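> call design_seq(struct)
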């Protein structure tokens, strides 16, 4: 049976679960060559609808393997559109300790993320971007394969992860893709070597399918920026789109955007591309694109008029949302803030899902006052918890263990460890 026939049988159900599982287990234990992975990924892409576009070359997207406080896509997509690229961005929801772009966007009252394929196409053609969820029609093969991988312990396979991620991006009909592959204690891949293998596999397979792909390896030990929690991350994304974002977040947005501008021939090199993206954050064009997208997807643009209306619109000022500050008991340089502990505290408060289908509270989260490299006096506040239960002692205790102070000033490094072309 050819790989195309196998994928057809996966989608139409003529191949029973036991046979699909045998195949998954074989791939899990023996692996696939790059060429075989390309064929598999192409078959998966073609198992459903594939978007097609009038100006090939200009359509781009980004994928991140997920992190804590990872709101990069929210400022990045409008910045790319402001620079003339077209972004049909299909994202996921959060599960476990990592958040999802869709959950963050849904903090905006009225904003719809379930668009039909023709609505996505029309909106991208009109305003240059759409930020939406996976549609039923795209890559149906991945839904069945992923569900079977999930229950048979075959998730952690390089060719299966590669084909799952790349097929969904390829079905968007994009010509360039950038991947943010994270490593560290709060990343999908803890070790740098595993992250590098995944990045190289996804880049090679994308290129094998004619997509101009590149990747970064970036650290995921501390939260990105200062906010973790859906509504709080929208506020930080808006700050970033207005040129007032945290340095680490802005760097990720500019570098990933610069790579896509270079890949699609809109800039000579990464530096020129990154500087165009930064200009769009500082001159208001990225934020204007974001507002166009919010309006087009039914969201209430009025909440973005002032800082107060934004906080109110996102529910941060609701009378049943409480805030509790936590202070440090000693003075010193912040040498670590454990992203995993912050994420687990947020998950406990209902910011994320423990299992698929759980209800979440988009207003709750943690706003950090500091990042690694800052100095705190004894008794200074380092974080504010936004929570819906009045009793918060346990969460506060949990979070207190996330911060480490040191007597000496730590060296602050870029989160970006390597760029892979
Ligand atoms: N994300 C996906 O979409 N698929 C995988 O296999 C792993 C992460």
């Amino acid at each position: 049976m050819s790989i195309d026939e196998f994928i057809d049988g996966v989608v139409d159900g003529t191949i029973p679960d036991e046979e699909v599982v045998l195949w998954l287990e074989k791939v899990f234990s023996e692996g696939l060559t790059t060429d075989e992975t390309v064929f598999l990924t192409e078959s998966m892409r073609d198992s459903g609808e594939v978007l097609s576009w009038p100006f090939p070359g200009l359509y781009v997207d980004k994928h991140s393997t997920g992190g804590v406080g990872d709101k990069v896509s929210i400022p990045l997509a409008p910045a790319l559109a402001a620079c003339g690229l077209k972004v049909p961005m299909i994202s996921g929801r959060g599960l476990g300790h990592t958040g999802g772009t869709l959950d963050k966007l849904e903090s905006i009252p009225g904003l719809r993320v379930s668009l039909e394929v023709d609505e996505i196409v029309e909106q991208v053609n009109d305003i240059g971007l759409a930020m939406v969820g996976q549609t039923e029609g795209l890559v149906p093969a991945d839904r069945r394969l992923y569900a079977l991988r999930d229950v048979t312990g075959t998730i952690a396979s390089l060719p299966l992860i590669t084909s799952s991620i790349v097929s969904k991006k390829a079905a968007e009909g994009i010509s360039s893709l950038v991947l943010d592959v994270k490593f560290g204690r709060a990343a999908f891949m803890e070790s740098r070597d595993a992250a590098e293998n995944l990045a190289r596999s996804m880049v090679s397979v994308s290129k094998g399918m004619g997509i101009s792909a590149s990747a970064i390896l970036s650290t995921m030990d501390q939260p990105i920026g200062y906010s973790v929690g859906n509504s709080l991350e929208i506020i930080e994304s808006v700050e970033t789109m207005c040129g007032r974002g945290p340095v680490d977040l802005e760097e990720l947005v500019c570098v990933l955007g610069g790579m896509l501008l270079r890949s699609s021939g809109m800039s000579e090199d990464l530096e020129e591309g990154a500087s165009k993206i930064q200009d769009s954050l500082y001159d208001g064009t990225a934020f204007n694109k974001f507002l166009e997208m919010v309006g087009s997807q039914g969201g209430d643009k009025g909440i973005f008029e002032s800082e107060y209306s934004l906080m109110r619109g996102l529910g941060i000022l609701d009378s049943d949302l409480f805030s509790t500050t936590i202070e440090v008991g000693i003075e010193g340089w912040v040498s670590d803030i454990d992203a995993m502990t912050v994420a687990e505290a947020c998950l406990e408060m209902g910011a994320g899902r423990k299992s698929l289908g759980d209800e979440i509270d988009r207003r709750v989260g943690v706003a950090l006052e500091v990042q690694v490299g800052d100095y705190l006096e004894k008794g200074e506040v380092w974080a504010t918890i936004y929570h819906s239960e009045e009793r918060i002692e346990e969460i506060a205790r949990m979070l207190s263990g996330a911060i480490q102070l040191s007597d000496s000033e730590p060296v602050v490094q870029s989160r970006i460890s390597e760029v892979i072309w």
